[in-house]
Design brief:
about 280 residues; alpha/beta; Rossmann fold; 6-stranded mixed sheet; globular; binds adenosine-5'-diphosphate; binds magnesium ion
């Protein structure tokens, strides 16, 4: 099914039905059910080792589930390669930055665009007018995206020479270059200070509002998640399972969530909630 036909077919862009992943004796994901409506912004939090990255790996096709069903636009995507899933509209960033440091900022974004080519190999080989026209559009799109995230001034610099915060921004824009319906963000604010987190939060919000794609955001900086999900939902994972889901307020007051983070029974005082804010 092609990307835009598929988009009309199902109200949910993503659905997990009883999904599990077993690594030897470790059940990294255990019988997870999850839905993401079209254009929804979903937060995914949980302690280290909870299974969050594994869940994103399942969606991006990096690994198949041991059991269960994963539907994208109502169609099973189990066994489909990451390249094909990128074509279908799933894009991601990684917990550890994966840029090409010796290539320029512009080239890194252009690579993202070519992950979903908009002209055929034959067009490219024979330099057809179509390929020339599309390539011009691609260059405009890459420049437009760099402008949008404030990286235009760095377009000709090597990606590896950018500051850490700007490299994170570049990863984000490269993932967006494929024009996704679903964007998976694995700890985009990792290693950032408070100011950088604030700037990234504003950027992600404006991008989401402008492009309207669905987002699943894994993030340890809990203020970033609470802010970005203030009108939507957060799922909390622990030991491979979905422990709770709800609004930011519901999550912060959920006894199971507090216990999972702190390993203790204190639940109602403000100090415990503040500790969650710091520890997530
Ligand atoms: N490729 C793998 N092989 C074996 N075990 C893995 C692999 N990937 C993840 N795990 C294990 O699965 C569990 C969940 O890991 P992960 O999804 O990375 O958690 P999180 O992103 O929430 O920190 C951990 O116990 C981790 O050690
Ligand atoms: Mg992880």
């Amino acid at each position: 099914m092609e990307k835009h036909d598929a988009a009309k077919a199902s109200p949910n862009v993503l659905e997990f039905k009883g999904v599990s992943v077993q690594f030897g004796g470790v059940r990294a994901v255990n019988n997870v059910d999850l839905t993401l409506a079209r254009g929804e912004f979903l937060g995914l939090i949980g302690p280290n080792g909870a299974g969050k990255t594994t869940l994103l790996n399942l969606i991006s096709g990096a690994m198949p589930p041991t059991s269960g069903e994963i539907l994208f636009n109502g169609q099973s995507i189990v066994g489909i390669s990451p390249d094909r899933l990128c074509h279908l509209g799933i894009s991601r960033t990684f917990q550890n930055i994966r840029l090409f440091p010796k290539m320029t900022v512009f080239e890194n974004v252009a690579l993202g665009l070519h992950a979903r080519p908009n002209y055929s190999l034959t067009d490219a080989l024979f330099c057809t007018p179509r390929s020339i026209r599309r390539e011009k559009q691609n260059i405009e799109r890459a420049n437009g995206l760099l402008d949008l995230v404030g990286l235009s001034a760095y377009a000709k610099k090597h990606a590896g020479d950018l500051s850490y915060g700007l490299q994170r921004r570049l990863e984000l824009v490269r993932a967006m270059a494929t024009d996704p319906q679903l964007l998976l963000l694995d700890e985009p604010a990792a290693g950032m200070n408070e100011d950088e987190c604030g700037n990234l939060t504003k950027l992600i919000r404006s991008i989401h509002q402008e492009f309207g794609f669905g987002v699943i955001l894994i993030e340890h900086h809990i203020q970033v998640v609470m802010e970005l999900c203030r009108e939507s939902r957060i799922y909390v994972m622990n030991l491979g399972e979905i422990l709770a889901s709800g609004t930011p307020m519901e999550i912060q007051n959920d006894t199971k969530v507090i216990n999972a983070y702190l390993g203790e029974k204190r639940t109602t005082n403000g100090r415990t909630r503040r500790q969650i804010s710091r520890n997530c």
